Every structure is written in structure tokens, then in C-alpha cells.
Amino acid sequence: MLSRGISVPILLAAFIANRYYYIFINMFTFSDVVLLARKIAVGILLTLIPFVLIAGGIWLAWKLFI
Amino acid sequence: MKLDNALARKVTRDGLISVVLYIAPIILMFASFQIFGYRPWEGSNGFPFRAPAFIEAVFKNLSSWGLPVIVLVLGVIEFAAGLYENKWTKNERILDIVCFVVPKLIIRPFVAYFGLKFLPLVLPDAKDAFGWVPFWWAFLIIAVADDLTQYWYHRLHHQVPWLWRFHRTHHSATYMGMAMASRQNVIYTLFFSQTYLTIALTYLGLGYAALFVKVIKSFITTGAHSSIPWDKPFYEIKGLKPIGWVLERLISTPATHHAHHADTSDDGVGYYKGNFGNMFFLWDIIFGTGIITRKYPSSYGIKHYQEEEWYAQFMWPIFKSKKEGSELSHNGPVVGDAVPDRQEPITLKPDITTTKVAVPTAAVA
Question: Is residue B25 a contact partner of residue B144, using CB atoms and an 8 Å limit?
Fold first, then answer.
């Protein structure tokens, strides 16, 4: 028989799993990981392109000036 | 669902125009150096701009805790004034509050790591490399860089169907108010491109200007989402009309941004397929993605909203909605921001009150 100290968290976990099983069983499938990776790639591109244009633009213009 | 060819061509064309817009402030800055013989990197920056200490303190405090407090107070006033009507259900309430609080706690560590650890690692010698850039030029560079990047981030989340669901939460509410400015899916907020771009430019030495841009931008975007129509006097009072004309083309106003949150584009007022600008509306003018009507839509939201659970709206795709057929459910449809065309079945029932029965004359006879 489980001691009280162990059984309470197990019961609590069972209750949460039962109540929110739908959330957990459909959590993060492989296609979600792919989707997220594509989304992050778009974000990186949208950061990197203006950064290269601005930082590279200032640096290049400054090099031409000095 | 893929981008159609005409849209892909327009995105490419506008992207190329954006390249020019990003570098325009730099070209203008160096042209001014050439004209005035000014070489700030040689130590000739004799008038480095510093805002008065009081102003600087105001902006620093606004940037850290002041703006969230202002938004909170105005949000409470909006609620007390009944602007949310009866639409602020328990689910919407939890979502708005979670979206307002949680990103402030989890995004700062990400941004801090990026600025304090990642950038020194990949660009070790670049810290403050452009610290010589005069304040007002840095202000213009940051304002364009930050807001044009957010315009593209926002526009792509509307026009690329598979990105839409990350932005859907921002449009799902059937009401408009202060809370809408922060109502976003956490993944959308976490990977805001303009945040990381501005941090990177801050690392290069443009940070002082970034502080002022951030505060001004926050005021404009919050004001545009607000249900307080602060722009109305500019359309109604004769003396203010010329200012209004410039203002509505330059920055986002409640009228133009509320139109973006409308649930239909058919009434000539709402325009959820455009008006993507955040701080500047100018991008919509340049790229032809905006409409100005000076009117406010009669209803907000998205037609195919199923009042999905707050956790699904906040955490999709990590958590899914239980609602069948929802975009946010497991294997949900990729609808995009457009209202799906629903073919209503036509019922062909005979109207018994008006139906006439032709009686063959032969039978009568």
C-alpha cells in the first residue's frame, strides 16, 4: 500500500491527466515541430535581412568615407 | 493552402521596395555628413544629444513599468465604462489577462539572453561599434527598422495561410480595447523579429535612441487599439482636418486599426486584409495595403471564431482546442485570415400558401 505522502501526488496527477487528457495527448506532434521550425525560420529571416542591410550599410558607407 | 502567384509577386515587389526603405536613412545620414563635412566617428560629434535628465527618467520608467501601468489603468476605465459590453466572457477575460501578464515574465529572459550572451558571442568586437551615430539619425534608423520589420512580420502572418494561426488570437475578440494590443499567441510574441533586431542594433550602439522609439511606438500602438476614438476631433473640427490628413497617413489611428480588426471587409469600413501598420501607417500607404475611411467598424473579430479555450489560443500549437473543426484543434483546417466561403444549402420547399395546382381541363371536363 502506498504511503500517504506518495499517493497524494499520484492521485493529483491522475486527476489532472483525466481532466486535461485531451490537451496532453495532442500536445506537440511531429508536424507541429515542423510548423514551429518553419515559423522560427521566417522570424530569423525577418530579423537577419534588415540587420545585414542596416549594420552592413552603415559599416560599408563608413568604410567608404574614411 | 499556398500563396497565389499574384500575391507572391506583390510580396516580392514590396520586399524589394523595403530594402530601399531600410537603407534610406543611412544614405540620407551619410549624404548629410558629406554636405556639412561632419565626421562624428573622428570625435567631431561635438553635440552628442542627451535628453534632459527629467525626460530621460520619464522614458526609462515608462519603458520598464510605466506603460504597463498606463495600459492597465486605461483598460480598467474601458471596462468600467462598459466598452466591452457583455462580450468579456470568463474565457476571454482569462485569455486577455494571461496575454497581458505572462509574456512580460517569459520574454524578458529570452531577450536578455540574446542581448547579453548570444550577441557578444557571435559579434564580440561589434559592441557600440556605431555609438558615434548622432541621436536623431539613430532615432530614424531604429524607427524605420523596428516598425517596418513588424509590418512585414504582421503582414506575412495574415497573407501566408500557415502562419495565420499564430496571429489568430489577436483577432478573435469580438470587442476592441487596450487589452487587444497584448492579446497574442505566446509563440507569436516570443519570436517578434523587430524585438531581436532592435536589441541587436542596441548592441551596436543605437540603444539610446531605441529607448525613445520604444516608448513612442507603445503609445501609438496602444492608442490605435484603444476604444477611445482620440482621432475623431481631427476629422470633425475644421481647423484640425489638415493635421488629421497627415496623421492618419503617417501613424496608426483607432479608425484605421479598428478597421483591421473588423470581422468583415464587405461594408466598406472594415479591412482585415490590410491596414497592417503598427506605429507607422505609412507602410500601408507605400505598399497599397491600407484603406482610410475615418469610420469605425460595427463589429469585430473573425467570422469563424469558435470561442476556443484560452489555453489553446495562448499556447497553440503546444496546446490544442477541443472544439471540433476549429483551426486550433488537432489537425484543424488551415483557413487563413479570410472568411471561408460557405455555400448555404438552398431549401426547395414549396410554399403551400401560394402554390397553385394546374388542373388539366380535360380532367375537369
Answer: yes
Q: How many domains does chain B have?
A: 1
Is B233 part of a structural domain of the chain? yes
- Tell me the whole-structure pTM to 2 decimals: 0.85
pLDDT, residue B49, reads 67
Q: Taking each helix axis from N to C terminus, what angle separates B193-201 and B135-159, rounded to the nearest 10 degrees? A: 160
- B41/A58 CB distance under 8 A: no
What's the structural domain count of chain A? 1
Predicted pLDDT at B161? 92
ipTM passes above 0.90:
no
Residue B345 pLDDT class (50, 70, 90 cuts) = very low
Could you tell me what percent of chain B has a pLDDT over 90? 56
- For residue B121, count other CB atoms closer than 10 A to its CB: 8
C-beta atoms of A46 and B145 within 8 A:
no
* CA-closest candidate to residue B264, choices B187, B339, B361, B182: B339
In whole angstroms, how far apart are CA B13 and each of A41, B141, B216, B287? Answer: 21, 22, 30, 9
Residue B345 domain flag: no
pLDDT at B188: 95
Q: Which domain holds residue A37?
A: 4-65
Confidence grade of residue A24 (pLDDT, cut at 50, 70, 90): low
Could you tell me the sign of the dihedral formed by the alpha carbons of B81, B85, B90, B92, in that order? Answer: negative
Q: Is residue B365 part of a domain?
A: no
Helix ranges (H only) for B310-350 are 310-315
Hey, is the C-beta of A66 within 8 angstroms of any chain B C-beta?
yes
**Facing residue for A57 by CB, picked from B23, B41, B149:** B23
| Residue B26 to residue A62, Cβ atoms within 8 A | no
pLDDT band at B348 (very low <50, low <70, confident <90, very high): very low
Residue B231 located in a structural domain: yes
Domain that holds residue B151: 5-315
Candidates B318, B322, B326, partner chain A, best to mutate (most A CBs within 10 A): B318
Q: Considering only CB atoms, which chain A residues are within 8 Å of B317?
A: 28, 32, 35-36
